[in-house]
Amino acid sequence: MSRKVRLGIIGFGNQGSQYAGLVADGRVGNIEVTAIADIDPARRELAAQQHQGVTLFEDHLSMLDSGEVDAVVTTVPHYLHPFMGIQALERGLHVLVEKPAGVYTKQVRELNEFAASKPELTFAIMFNQRTNPLYRRLKEIVDSGEIGAIRRTNWIITTWYRPQAYYDQSAWRATWGGEGGGVLVNQAPHQLDLWQWICGVPQKVFAKAAFGFRRAIDVEDEVVAVVDYGGGATGTFTTATHELVGTDRFEISGDKGKIVVDGSTTAVVTRFRHSEQEVSAGIPPEEIWKMTSDQFDPDEYYTQETLEFDTAWGGQHAAVLENFAANILDGTPLIAPGSDGILGVRLANAIHLSAWTGREVPMDFDEDEFLAELNKKIAEEGKFPQQH
């Protein structure tokens, strides 16, 4: 490709430095990092050592106005993603926001609406786990109707073990005012995205969350949520950061089949020869016993396929960066359009609101009520300004 997208990185922390490294290592062929902005002098010095020739800026606005970048990626604290995304779009720059798109739907909606007013600009989000070949295949299977209408989904994802030292390393980490929450906004956004990307968006949710259950933090470190898809279909989502031996198991049960995923690398796909209702209607009383005895012949009722992939990661961050640039250069469809970011934020908000109030919460919840409740938590912490 003759032309490369000139990328500016806002924030040279763990993620920003990783992205700069991916480009420097030649893993993203259609991007060149031309600028890095960070308010921390030590981080700018490190960037200068690692990426000679890249222009460094003390603040992001100077970089946005410099004319040295075509696009930016926002690797900054969660609350800043919508704010900085809008600032970049205002200046005619393409934007890739980190996950989550923000902390509360009201601010993410503002970002989405502004991005929609700039259709000539590319707006994407770093949902890198959508590049996982296993989940891409499962979405194809579900979308095609091979397992029929979804009746139940379950995801247990507790492979996020974090010791207390993890939370103690930064004053903003695991705070309402600095990070916006715990496991739902830090570790689990990818699963909240994949869950809805594959299974659809639920109508309402009821949740129980434990705040500082096993760690000295104010935010949630364990969550169990039950969602209602309508028509009797339900789903559960369980996540935690304190299980020393965690579990990653995802099940999708349909009326014509079932999918069971272990470790995000292996899935067993069961396809029924007839719908479950037809099977039930076709079993006479005298043959009921066969279903629970050695006379049961599974081949009579279903086939099974095991999908295995060498890695759970796919192309991950490099693939999303390359796809982002390709969309800018030639219109290649985005893996994760930026507008999709509000879905995971909305579900996380609904889960929080349900856990705070003890009631079932619809997906069209009152955004002002959520923000008021969040600001109560921020005020109780007394460390950060409230949000607007």
TrEMBL record:
Domain named GFO/IDH/MocA-like oxidoreductase: residues: 135-259
Keywords carried by this UniProt record: NAD
Gfo/Idh/MocA-like oxidoreductase N-terminal domain span: 6-119
Record's keyword annotation contains ATP-binding: no
Pfam families registered for this protein in UniProt: GFO_IDH_MocA, GFO_IDH_MocA_C3
Stretches that traverse the bilayer: none
InterPro entries: Gfo/Idh/MocA-like_OxRdtase_N, Gfo/Idh/MocA_Oxidoreductase, GFO_IDH_MocA-like_dom, NAD(P)-bd_dom_sf
Protein's name in the database: Gfo/Idh/MocA family oxidoreductase
Organism, as annotated: Sinomonas flava
Domain of life: Bacteria
Key word Hydrolase present: no
